[in-house]
UniProtKB/TrEMBL annotation:
Belongs to the DNA mismatch repair MutS family. It comes from the Eukaryota. Pfam families: MutS_III. This is DNA mismatch repair protein MutS core domain-containing protein. Residues 101-217 form the DNA mismatch repair protein MutS core domain. Gene3D superfamilies: 1.10.1420.10. GO terms for molecular function: ATP binding; ATP-dependent DNA damage sensor activity; mismatched DNA binding. It comes from Penicillium freii.
Length: 250
């Protein structure tokens, strides 16, 4: 008997989201042990121990992590390359939680009258030039940080860019060359159960796109030459030279 079909959670989702699509998973997929096994197999080697300690005190997070990856493997017939995932546990502390009713009524993401309109907070603020930037902005609106140190660092970075027009223009120009790195990297490490000619051809395209992305990083490094704020300096510390030399040799 699948009790999830009549659960309170399902009812709440149906009440708040239009025409949701449900996929029901077997209870055995929600396994804490399996979650830890996935961490050992997929996380970066140097991060495995700390992640296991963190998950040790978060039973439900480990179970949900296992269920999601099992769904990818079984239903989508995809698997991740070993030690290819940057896995992070982000607790709710340090951020503000906004309920769905507030998100809708304040038009934080979508206009109430016209779903395609840009007259929402996200639409008005979205001057981003990359898909990653748009996703980060959306996440920051839906779950804004409450950490003073993090907010101060962001304010200082904004001031740094606002008071140095040449640097600001150079950074925006450099960002125009960025591809959707998240999408490409995911495509590279996500391997289908059965490899086809189309997959091989797309893999070649992904490598070419990745090379383009690495080349664009050098432009950002150069554009931030006059940066003084801690956050922008941290970004600039990611020296692209080794990656650049690697792509040039290939």
């Amino acid at each position: 008997m699948n009790t999830a079909k009549e659960s309170k959670l399902r009812y709440i989702i149906q009440e708040n989201l239009p025409d949701p699509i449900f996929t029901f998973l077997d209870r055995r997929w929600w396994s804490e042990k399996t979650g830890h096994e996935y961490v050992e197999r997929l996380a970066f080697p140097e991060e495995v121990d700390s992640l296991k300690v963190t998950l040790g005190g978060n039973y439900f997070a480990a179970c949900c992590f296992a269920a999601v990856l099992k769904y990818v493997e079984v239903e989508l017939q995809r698997s991740f390359t070993a030690h290819s995932l940057r896995i992070r546990f982000e607790p709710s502390q340090g951020s503000m939680t906004i309920d769905l009713a507030t998100i809708v009524s304040l038009e934080l993401i979508q206009n109430l009258q016209n779903a395609k309109s840009k007259e929402s907070l996200f639409g008005l603020l979205n001057k981003t030039l990359t898909p990653m930037g748009a996703r980060l902005l959306r996440a920051s609106i839906l779950q804004p940080s409450t950490e003073r140190v993090k907010l101060t660092a962001r304010y200082n970075a904004v001031e740094d860019l606002a008071t140095k027009e040449d640097m600001f223009v150079s950074v925006r120009q450099a960002l125009k060359g960025f591809i959707d790195a998240d999408k490409v990297l995911t495509a590279i490490i996500l391997v289908p159960t059965k490899r086809t000619i189309q997959y091989v051809e797309q893999s070649v395209n992904n490598v070419i796109m990745l090379k383009t992305y690495v080349s664009a990083i050098k432009s950002i490094f150069q554009a931030l030459g006059a940066a003084q704020s801690d956050l922008l300096l941290t970004i600039r510390e990611v020296d692209p030279t080794p990656l650049w030399c690697f792509t040039q040799s290939n």
